[in-house]
Amino acid sequence: MIYHSEFKRSIERPKEFWRQQAKLIDWMQFPETIWEANDNGHGRWFPDGVLNSSDLALDANLRAGRGSQTALIYDSPVTNCQQSYTFQQLTEEVAVFAGALNRQGIAKGDRVLIYMPMIPQAVIAMLACARIGAIHSVVFGGFAPHEVAVRIDDAQPKAIVTASCGIETDKVLPYKPLVDSAIDQACHKPACCIVFQRPQARAELKPDRDLDWNELVANAEPLAPVPVQATDPLYILYTSGTTGKPKGVVRDNGGHAVAMRYSMSMVYDAKPGDVFWAASDVGWVVGHSYIVYAPLISGCTTVLYEGKPVRTPDAGAFWRVCQDHGVNLLFTAPTAFRAVRKEDPEADLLRKYNISSLRRIFLAGERLDPPTYEWLSEQTHLPILDHWWQTETGWAICCNPVGLEMVTPKPGSATFPTPGFDVQILDSQGHVADTGVQGQVAIRLPLPPGCLTTIWGDDDRFQNTYLAPIPGYYSSGDGGYVDDEGYVFIMGRTDDVINVAGHRLSTGEMEEILASHPAVAECCVVGAHDNLKGQVPIGLVLVKDGATIAHDELEDELVEMVRERIGAIACLKQAMVVERLPKTRSGKILRRVIRQIADGEEYTIPSTIDDPAILEEIRQQFS
Ligand code: COA
Ligand code: AMP
Questions:
Q1: Assigned domain for 494 exists
Q2: Does residue 437 belong to any structural domain of this protein?
Q3: Which atom of ligand 2 is nearest to the CA of 286?
């Protein structure tokens, strides 16, 4: 098999392998050193290479003669607007916005926080930062001001770039008041806030701090890409960990660009000129990698879709976009198709459109449940390809290696380790588990290019979370197994992270919020199964002795608190007052059993439990 020999080469001779892949991108100075290891097996890719990620995404396409090819298609059913940019036009827009940022004193190494809906200006802002070597930190528009404030304090941005509003199906959500509130709550104050005014809601600008995007651009000069070291950070992307403080995943420029380019051919079998659509959001890692950087670096046309799989206006939306723009490769989260299937079970809307351009559908972000896989296969007659990855890795750890050869998919499996990722299943002692036996999924170091280099401002946390638990390995936080044919099955997180509609959230963070209510003595949050969203959080709380608040009032207040602090996407809709929480004799809450009870699954009573009768009490409350 071609895959096996490529995989073997990537693991046995990584420097040679990645030197070869590095040749596929346009460096300002090609690296002499391919890999430089630290004492602990982690290290830096291409340390003496020099390049610019915006140059690779834009100018390199002009040099390759693709100036008149469409680079970006903006399709927005919520505003009834479609707009295309050629590589030439996108380069000009980005160069001018880079000039505008530069005029505000933003330069290499400065951070810029981007809080934007799915409009072209979000992509332009990201690429403009990359052009001047500034580090962007995009925050998903569904996060509430408190979450934005936490990120402002951590990244300490010099500027914030935002828009006057986002649009969720038919709701216009003013963004500016959220940003104002976030800046008020944060200790760090950015020097300026650049606002793109949308006609659906205009924002009021504060004269001493806020700047109008269009005015800035009208007075700016285009800027050429500045050379940066391969190891200089390109972006920080915050993701949920096990505590209330999100982790700022840091991505470098060089390793990232090489990985993006390689993944487009290996994982997606994309060619220059293909239309690639990642139906996600620029606020998530999928958006960073596969709406913005990878397709553009690879000379593909990318689609930026401001809508939902359903209700904008119906469950035929995805098929309509594929037809209208001749999409060749589609990538989204299983939740999106569960929503489509729920509303259009016989796929009647699919028959209204011609999707013959579509070659493959890729799914990731959460486990691809076999019923969704089968429905999609039957309805589209297309290869449906599951692949597994994380914000931390930035690209697929396991995939069907279609760029080399397509292997027969197995429902429920993300297929094989991607070349570069030495995936191992380890038992609790850190020993390699037997075939078919579930364990923790770990990656033997070194990680390939493109993976996180550290956590912003907290290298100790990076070391302690990912490298220290099993020396010589990166701990993924996922559990799973490998079958006798080498297929990898990812079964879910082994920590306090849950996946709600393809969005990664921390139950630990929600617990901190519930526990901050004055009437709550103790609490826990578990991710219960949900037919549409995969998982939804459910809170269980113990009321403090002497608290007089009515239980239903408390439950409503707790739901509202989570919505206020994290945002509507947290989807904590149920907070339940219980008499007691099941614990081990040493006082640890038995979250796994609670989740099994919430899901109506069989459970075994743990031998360490303090009082087994509590489980029956909880079961009765759920039923
Ligand atoms: N800005 C502001 N609010 C947002 C938002 C954004 N960018 N995204 C979601 N929200 C809000 C929604 O309006 C909703 O608010 P409500 O409780 O007031 O109605 C809440 O957050 C929950 O949103 P969501 O989880 O998206 O649920 P939904 O019922 O609106 O839609 C799906 C359900 C399945 C259609 C939707 O979750 C979806 O498209 N999922 C695919 C996710 C995806 O692509 N993930 C990317 C990973 S690859
Ligand atoms: P995120 O960092 O938001 O991309 O979420 C990463 C987590 O999503 C992983 O650690 C997994 O738990 C889950 N995940 C992503 N893709 C898959 C997949 N294909 N199969 C199973 N779980 C997945």
A1: no
A2: no
A3: 4
